[in-house]
Amino acid sequence: MTPAARLQSAAEILDLLKKSRRPAEEVLKDWGRNNRYAGSKDRRAIADKVYQCLRARERLSFAMDSDAGRSLVLGALHFLDGVSIAEIDDLYTGEGYAPPKLSETERNRLEAPDGEAPEWLESGLPEFVVERLKSVYGDNWLKEAEALMLPRAPIDLRVNGDRAPLIAGLEMLGYKPEPTPFSAFGVRLPADPPPNVRALPAFRQGTIEIQDEGSQLAGFLAGARPGMTVVDYCAGGGGKTLALLQAMQGEGRLIASDVEKTRLNNIKPRLTRAGLEADLRQLGPDGEGMEDLEGQADLVLVDAPCSGSGVWRRRPETAHKLEEKEVARLHELQTAILHRASRLVKPGGLLAYATCSILPDENERTADRFEADHPWFTPRAVAEVVDTPSITPEGAQTLKSIAHKSDSRGHRLRLSPGTSHTDGFFVSLYRREP
Ligand SMILES: C[S@@+](CC[C@H](N)C(=O)[O-])C[C@H]1O[C@@H](n2cnc3c(N)ncnc32)[C@H](O)[C@@H]1O
């Protein structure tokens, strides 16, 4: 493909993404399958341009006064890559597979200075998200915003067992694995070139799972131990279920529940692969189906439905679609779910609340409200739980200091790509009074 034809394809894919709810990665894969003339270098160049536009979408659509795929690509070429208008004219010839020539409006937008853009546009994030980042991170907000949208996030694996042999095996296959700094069972692979984890024998044998280090930590910090009765209340596809079972070392009982049956069904093959067992339960809309567990659980983990803003570096196409009113709805839903789930905790038992969001509305505000309405749940300091075999000793020290900065009582942990180099995660820990 010519460079111009690649630009035309990137613009078309951006238009497809605007209408679609599917992840950009899948849409790009489908496009590659349906357009066999595109070689691997073409597909790579097209994907790079698509992701560059998605990450800077707010800024580019402001500069071009349009969020059409073509406008975003033109804006990226000129404002981000520094391609001159004369060079763009050479590419946008309208001949063969090249994009049509520049219109007068487009030319005027490209010629207009980009300087009057408001400060928040720099980050590529919606304005209300920038406000929230400022409230949490102060002057560091832009650094956090950039890390949140940084391309090529590494792929983390959780190893069910000793990670050293896996690291050696991956090195023999030509990969460049690193042990993760916090999780003692984590292995980090660079995103480039993209590792085909599902083809690895260790994946098929159930020894490894793809799981960001932040998500591993959320599972480990919940405090599951052998012999406990544990409820993974919003189990979804089971990422944390498996981490909890790993901490339980095959002793005790785990109940994984969710309102979505299809999600719960996804846990089954993962359990089978890892040779583990759990009781899977579909909940009714108001939490029906757990009556027998009221006041019975040693530990309840609520990995609540959330905006997913903590994983925007992996799915930048979702960032600009998030609306403030959706965040308000999620806060209400999280509050209701946390209340329902807390009833399952036995006196003296543990409760952990987690999200993969960076927004205080879904994190601190939900935790504040729960604490105000449930004074019989007392905060449990992260420092009390980090010294476990699942967390490295150096990682434990760092987590203690992050928790201390997150809240003076030290029971909340805010992880982010900018501070812990993980996805964005929030964890808040409690113990029910005996
Ligand atoms: C963040 S996801 C869970 C991810 C999962 N724990 C993991 O580690 O892979 C949140 C889950 O909450 C579920 N959910 C939504 N509303 C719920 C409700 N009212 N009660 C329980 N679960 C709910 C969603 O179906 C979704 O699977």
UniProtKB/TrEMBL annotation:
Any GO molecular function: methyltransferase activity
UniProt keyword list: Methyltransferase, RNA-binding, S-adenosyl-L-methionine, Transferase
Region (Disordered), start-end ranges: 97-117
Domain of life: Bacteria
Ranges for domain SAM-dependent MTase RsmB/NOP-type: 142-433
Ranges annotated as biased composition (Basic and acidic residues): 103-112
Entry annotated with the keyword Nucleus: no
Residues annotated to bind S-adenosyl-L-methionine: 258, 286, 303
CDD domains: AdoMet_MTases
Any one biological process term the GO annotation gives: methylation
Catalytic machinery residues: 356 (nucleophile)
Family classification: Belongs to the class I-like SAM-binding methyltransferase superfamily. RsmB/NOP family.
Record PANTHER family: NOP2 YEAST -RELATED NOL1/NOP2/FMU SUN DOMAIN-CONTAINING, RIBOSOMAL RNA SMALL SUBUNIT METHYLTRANSFERASE B-RELATED
Protein name, UniProt field: RsmB/NOP family class I SAM-dependent RNA methyltransferase
Lineage, highest ranks first: Bacteria, Pseudomonadati, Pseudomonadota, Alphaproteobacteria, Caulobacterales
